[in-house]
């Protein structure tokens, strides 16, 4: 079973690339982020025509997450995270597919830092950790997949100096991510490539793609039961090179 995480950076603008990805790679489950689409304008018919069922949590113009399943309709479990009732951002969607629990996550960017956006990012990480503990208590196969907007380690970025002041690499951001891992989650891509140097994002600016000046912010975390089934993990980097592609490449894990 191949589970992919894909920040599409606007599903309407990238729909041809998404449909191409589904046809070429045929992942079993895809967690999408940054739909930039309201619930009403989500392209369900195009996705269903490609052979995928879907649940989605949209928001006009920004944010938005979805879960797609090949040949099946995901069963929604939860949308949004508890702990901040006034938070209306569409950043978390949890579903079940063939007995596997998956969550599509679009964690706040947090820039500029310091400031209220960074404070919101850290609170969101704490709320995600609270949900993580609840999911682990279920003792099931769970995958937390998405754009975490956290560069966990120095070898997950092309240049430490270039990103030193960015919210993605602040000690508080990294600490929040590590606290989540410490609950018992497995960072699948890090497990597969412990040496680092695997990028999932390349900015559109300053020729970042051409220079391979990227970093790793898309993560698929596995519960212990899911980690026992880990067969492989990787990045479908070729899809970042296509015309009018997202600035993220699909990142995936394969479970037995």
From TrEMBL:
Keyword Oxidoreductase recorded: no
GO MF term list: DNA binding; double-stranded DNA 3'-5' DNA exonuclease activity; endonuclease activity; metal ion binding
Cofactor: Mg(2+); Mn(2+)
Site positions per UniProt: Interaction with DNA substrate: 248
The protein's enzyme class: hydrolase
SUPFAM superfamilies cross-referenced by the UniProt entry: DNase I-like
Binding site for Mg(2+): 7, 34, 147, 149, 247-248
Name this protein carries in UniProt: Exodeoxyribonuclease III
Designated gene of the protein: xth
């Amino acid at each position: 079973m191949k589970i992919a995480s894909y920040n599409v950076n606007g599903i309407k603008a990238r729909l041809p690339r998404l449909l191409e990805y589904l046809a070429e790679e045929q992942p079993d489950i895809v967690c999408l982020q940054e739909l930039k689409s309201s619930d009403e304008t989500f392209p369900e018919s195009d996705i269903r025509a490609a052979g995928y069922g879907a649940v989605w949590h949209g928001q006009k113009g920004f944010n938005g997450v979805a879960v797609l399943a090949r040949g099946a309709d995901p069963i929604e479990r939860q949308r949004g995270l508890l702990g901040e009732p006034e938070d209306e951002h569409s950043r978390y969607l949890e579903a079940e597919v063939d007995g596997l629990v998956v969550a599509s996550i679009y964690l706040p960017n947090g820039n500029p830092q310091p400031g209220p956006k960074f404070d919101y990012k850290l609170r969101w990480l704490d709320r995600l950790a609270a949900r993580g503990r609840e999911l682990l208590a279920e003792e099931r196969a769970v995958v937390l997949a998405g754009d975490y907007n956290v560069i966990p380690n120095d070898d997950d970025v092309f240049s430490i100096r270039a990103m030193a002041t960015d919210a993605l690499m602040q000690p508080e951001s990294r600490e929040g991510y590590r606290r989540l891992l410490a609950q018992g989650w497995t960072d699948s891509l890090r497990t597969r490539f412990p040496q680092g140097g695997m990028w999932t994002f390349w900015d559109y600016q300053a020729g970042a793609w051409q220079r391979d000046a990227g970093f790793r912010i898309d993560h698929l975390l596995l519960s212990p039961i899911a980690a026992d089934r880990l067969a492989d993990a990787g990045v479908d980097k070729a899809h970042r090179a296509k015309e009018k592609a997202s600035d993220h490449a699909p990142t995936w894990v394969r479970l037995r």
